[in-house]
Amino acid sequence: MSNAQTCTREAFLQRAGLGLAATALGAGPANAPPMAPTSAAEALKWLKEGNARFVSGNQHFEPQNARVLELAEGQSPYAIVLGCSDSRVPVETIFDEDPGHIFVVRVAGNFLNADNLGSIEYGVAVLKSKLILVLGHSKCGAVAAAVSYVKEGTTQPGHIQNLVTAIQPAAKAARDMSGDWLSNAVNENMRRNVHAMTADSKIIADAVEAHRVEVIGGIYDIHTGLVHFY
Question: Which CATH number is correct for 3-229, 3.40.50.150, 3.40.630.30, 3.50.50.60, 3.40.1050.10?
């Protein structure tokens, strides 16, 4: 490990237990959005308003050259989104947000594991984000594969099966629900991962208890572009 890597790791560990230095990995409040949200409720309001602009076609997209230079000095995202890797769900775009405002963690099936949970803990402990959103989406292929696995025992090649196995409990729980199995499994997967945020992480649980962050869920409709919040 190089000296630079060692310094970065030590800076993070020093603050993550729970004194956290804002210099690690581009942290720093200098590049927060103007009048940045100061609460989870306000952060959610910003996400809802951005999604409404996206759905209506009234996005506030601007050239990013100046913003790129600003972000070289640090980041201060107001929200963390655990989303799916699906290319039809570009997180900043569907919330009509500039780079630097949302700390995005993506994995097919938007489920928690040790690695992405660590990233989310970093967003809470170091970057001081106010809101965590677990964002599922309609017609999710990873969840559909989990439903097929529960229904017919269909397995996937290579490491893809690891994704299916992680989502399988949600697919199984949704089997006897009324309505569409896939839609129910998408919602159940989202709900289970919202719960796991605090159940599996003391850092996040403590921040929620202290009212420094809130954890919510949402489902993005790939047909309409609308995010339904829960």
Answer: 3.40.1050.10
